[in-house]
Write the structure tokens for this entry.
Amino acid sequence: MSRFSNSIKNIFYFFWVRHLKKTLVALLAISLIYWFCLPKKIFDTPTSIVLVDRNDYLLGAQIASDGQWRFPHNDSVPQKFITAITEYEDRRFFDHIGIDLTGIGRAVRDNYQQGKIASGASTITMQVIRMSTQRKGRSIYRKMQEMMMATRLELRYNKSQILAMYASNAPFGGNVVGLDAAAWRYYGKSPQLLSWGEAATLAVLPNSPGLVHPGKNRQRLLEKRNLLLSKLLERGLVDSMTITLAKEEAIPQAPLPLPRLAPHLVSRIAQDQKTTDSKKKYAYFKTTIESDLQIRIQQLMLQQYQRLQNNGVHNIAVLVSDTKSGEVLSYWGNVIPPNTTENQGQNVDIITAPRSTGSILKPFLYASMLHNGNLLPHSLVPDVPMYLGGYRPKNFYENYDGVVPASRALVRSLNIPMVRMLQQYGTANFCTQLRKMGLTTITQSPKHYGLSLILGGAEATLWDLCGAYASMGRTLLNYQERIQDQTEAYSPSDFRPLHYLLKDSTPTPKSFLSEAPILNATSIYNTFEVMRQLERPNSEGGWRYFQSSRDIAWKTGTSFGFRDAWAIGVTPEYTIGVWVGNATGEGKQGLIGVKAAAPILFDVFNQLPQTSWFTPPQHALKKLPVCKKSGYRLSKYCTDIDTVEVGSNAYQVKACPFHQQLHLDSSQLYQVTSACESVNNMVSTSWFVLPPLEEYYFKSKNPSYRKPPEFRQDCRFGAEQQSMQFIYPKNPTTIFIPVDFDGEINGTVFKIAHQLPQKTVYWHLDNEYLGMTKDFHEMELKPLPGQHKVVLVDEDGVRLEQRFEIVLKKR
């Protein structure tokens, strides 16, 4: 003992007396190496992009960049798997410090007896180190290194965290890594739902995933699983009945495909991750999607697909959102037909693809004009043919009403009145308004779009459109809540995009506004009231109300060439958007919004709970007397009075321009003037008078319309009335004339409207008399290319002139 004691003293003297500084430096170096032997991030391997619904149900995933199905790290490990894996791999896991001295002794004994390395005595902690370093092969040096790093890992993390690292990164055969991926690939369920038999099966896989694979070596896997279950029974961890039933469970077959309940949303998020500048890229996304609703809408889309594909239409997109919160509840960027080998553009996410808008923007214009005080809900708008240079908008059935209430123009989606309204509102103003409402694709100048903007001359995405309509509904709902307590009832954040991630909370503004920055509550409410009365055309060109079991503010749209069919509906609870067409842009005759997209819209609403309707913003609505016939504010000549509930801006709308005071003679059969009749003999009366062109179309559909009386023969000269108006061409204009293959120049039909069609009209072209017309005032002219002037004179001497230019265009 004295010799041993002397050795200890010598060693102590050598290190702690003679070489104290070196010893301290060495110890410090060893301590630093030990302390920093672990990287800051234990695992830095790429992971799959994983999407789950709001209740953590798997919607879909995208394989990691290294070709592995490796789900993001999950802190939650099911207790059944913890029990099974610790029993199978590391029984004393919760008692050791990263290395198991008892296990090491046993391993040394077994290896010595068998003359080879039969057991490595690796703890779960050591296996985590081995998986993180991705080192292969065995050696004493590597084992010592793993042991050192394992003890350090135990100092940094608790046992639950280490188990979570193991479960998230253990190999489970093939390209399946991690418990989450394994549970879905082998059993089609979340790890939390695993049975004891399933948990035991997955617990034995990481031990030798290359040898034991559910798709092969099935007997070997079955034996290992049952042996583990027997150990669990022996140790009293699981009751005998449960173990007996667990052993009856079948071994899984080859890996199952992962759910594909939101494939286009997975792709969208993956693309966003590639393009984001942030160094912190996420892989696990908890969405606002409701998987049950997602499945029901998928089934509905597949049913509709069977109907549409017979007409050569292959793509459908549906977006469902919560109106108040803006959360997306269902996201189908395209229909995915099962067992189809031919791709008809189903991989394209239509929800984010810019498409021609058709008429879907019309409610935005109507609401904007109400908001600005440019219009009252039922103000008459011209509905007559338009010729604006080379642009000639038409109504869907090419018939015209002369004048029509703005509300009816929106209900019937009439093109001409809407173009007239945009002309009044201003294309530049409307472009600015659309951008404020969240339409990110309106990037060109107003001149680029022109008046065709309201008929589909621009592109928009279903995402932006649904966001804008939901924002309108949200503004109205929030107004009703805030106005109870304060006058500042508008939030700058009411108009915002939809969102599909549950972590994205609703923005809270620092202050509220007393005036709406984009659209006020009254303009939105009046627009929605009109939209829920939407009518649809029948096959004969007439109109009827679209029957629905619930109140919905909805609008359809059809792009030029029948390429895009839209339908969007809003209630206080939901905002739903539907698009139907071909991703290739191929048009199909009969592909119109009201027939192709609207039925799907209402089918989707039927998948949802019963909805309500918007409460009128009574605090902001004011009763305004209006002219019943024209819908404008009262003028002193209006006789029939009605009232409308509108916002305060409505008082800016001009008074009725159609009611005029006429002066009649004593017989009340003719108009007179002071130049031909004594004032004492005049009878003054109020009369509803339309301009000649509007009257021409209006009286054919309104037999009760009373034309103003003619001027008495001796009072016609000097009478200020425009009895004639051109239908075509309008001033100024350029007429493009096609030239036939034989060089023959086609003619152009000139047409006018006359308040008194029975009057004779004399036609002159460039001072040359052409002929006369009566009752039907139209004539085909064949002028040569260049500038021309046509002059018309009726039998009363009323004169009408029009200049135009002829430009030849070869076929």
